Amino acid sequence: MKAVLDISDLEEMTKELLDLTPDGWTRSIYFDVSKLLEEVGEVAEALNKSKYTDEDVADEITDVIVCCFVIALKRKIDLNRAMINKQEKRVKKLLKRFHDKECPK
Ligand SMILES: [Mg+2]
């Protein structure tokens, strides 16, 4: 496996998981969203309990990421494009907030 992954690699890995899961592609997207929430809870639990290691936390974070990719794939969302677009919006919003604070009306 490659040491460095990009978004298309993550999409391919997620497709492989969906292919290997009997109802992976056909189950409801709302099931996938509930799975995402379950995995977010597992991240919180791993962070809150001392018995969990950083590797455990990392495992749970990757579960969250896979759930996001599952939802994006089923909705045919290009996450590469979406990440770029959203980052531009975030930066623009933060710069505006900074600018508005620096230049009170
Ligand atoms: Mg998990």
Can you describe what's shown?
With 105 residues, the protein is mainly α. The protein folds into two domains: 1-74, Helix Hairpins (Orthogonal Bundle); 78-105. It has four helices and no strands. It has helices spanning 7-20, 29-48, 54-74, 79-102. The longest helix is centred in the last third of the chain and has 24 residues, at 79-102. The N and C termini lie far apart (55 Å). The relative contact order is 0.12. Residues 39, 42, 60, 63 line the site of magnesium ion.
Structural class, judged by helices and strands? mainly alpha
Count of discrete alpha- or pi-helical segments spanning 4 or more residues: 4
Helical proportion, percent range: over 70%
Under the CATH scheme, the architecture of the largest domain is: Orthogonal Bundle
Topology, number of strands:
0
List each distinct ligand once: magnesium ion
The CATH class assignment of the largest domain is Mainly Alpha
- Report mean pLDDT, rounded to a whole number: 95
Q: Please indicate the count of domains.
A: 2
CA-based gyration radius: 18 Å
CATH-derived topology of the largest domain: Helix Hairpins
Cα distance spanning the termini: 55 Å
Q: What is the 3D form?
A: extended
SS strand fraction: under 5%
Contiguous uncertain segments of 5+ residues = none
| SSE succession | HHHH
Describe the sheet with the most strands: none
